[in-house]
Specification:
By secondary structure, the chain is an alpha/beta fold. It folds into two domains: about 130 residues, Aspartate Aminotransferase, domain 1, CATH 3.90.1150; about 240 residues, 3-Layer(aba) Sandwich (Aspartate Aminotransferase, domain 2), CATH 3.40.640.10. Helices cover about 40% and strands about 15% of the residues. It is built from 13 helices and twelve strands. Strands 2-8-7-6-5-3-4 form a seven-stranded mixed beta sheet, with helices on both faces. The protein is globular, with a radius of gyration of 21 Å. The relative contact order is 0.17. The model has no long low-confidence stretch (mean pLDDT about 95). It binds pyridoxal-5'-phosphate (PLP). The site of pyridoxal-5'-phosphate has 14 residues, from helix 3. Pyridoxal-5'-phosphate binds next to helix 3.
Length: about 375
Amino acid sequence: MKIRYFDHAATTPVREEVVKEMLPFFGIEYGNASVMYSLGRNAKKAMKQARERVARAINADINEIYFTSCGSESDNLAIKGFAYENKNKGNHIITSKIEHHAVLDSCKTLENQGFKVTYLGVDENGKINLEELINSITNQTILITIMFANNEIGTIEPVEEIAKIAKEKNIVFHTDAVQAIGNAKIDVKKMDIDMLSLSGHKFYAPKGVGALYVKNGINFKKLQDGGEQESNKRAGTENVAEIVGLGKAIELIYNEYDWYNEKLKILRNHYMDRVKKEIDNIKINGDLIDRLPGNANISFRNVNGSELLFELDKYGICASAGSACSTSNPEPSHVLTAIGLDKEYIGGTLRVSFGKDNSIDDVDFLVNRLKEIIK
Ligand SMILES: *Cc1c(COP(=O)(O)O)cnc(C)c1O
């Protein structure tokens, strides 16, 4: 059976070009990047190139990029690492109710350790309110962490405005940009972003490698003790092959930015237009304009979402209920709850996230099956 994959917000397939670039580092180029002889120097050189590619993609300096094991680790390191290092300056952090659990749970941990956290609400489209943000700032606020784009409903937050508010108040601003890489142009200098998390497997690199950008001059504590890798901010022998893969993938996705984003929009709009016209009692979730180009999140009234996924799977269709991170969790998604979605809709939510290898044919197949199943 042909697999039709519409879950790129959960993870993406690894590109061939990326695999090709990584392969030597699983084999003959096995040197440790920290040693002096040439075998290790090759690894070190490859890592430097990867760091340059990440830095170039978001307009950071090369020494502002720290490689990690995933987006979750980057979020943990940014939020907890910053809070621990700067607790003498204040104990208040501001975030939103619709963050990824890597951010929410890092904040919860800090709350248990005596920090105060404000969880901003969002409007029905999933956007935070800038007035509410300003009003929640106190003289104890040291960090604002708001995601660039939401992984469930695709809403893009007003990052530049948030950064401006943070800068005026001398507060550090971190953003979880895991969903935004490749789907939004990011310039950390122009946008005044202080810290930014990203993860390879959301843009066609493998799972298990991420990066954190931290602006020069901002101090944070290392969370994992051991060696002095990553400028002594993240102990552990570097995962050279995957770091090389992440570097290649981020360069490719930004080289193809216009083509890629246009393609995602065409697929997404075709899907949404057909569903709107051909299926009754639906609700489109997330902001219609400030939105990831490949995201469509639609709720079908009084439909059982798990059953829907199960039926779609019979046809080789991969999609997601809310987010992939919470499939074992029977609670309704915290994001859909935060946007105030009605009860009869919340359980029947389907997140479809498009990728570079999808076609209009695939979309038509999906809509046709959806129509049959929902009927
Ligand atoms: C996927 C995702 C993460 C987690 O990244 P991992 O590399 O899977 O740990 C964090 N934040 C957002 C918004 C994500 O979509």
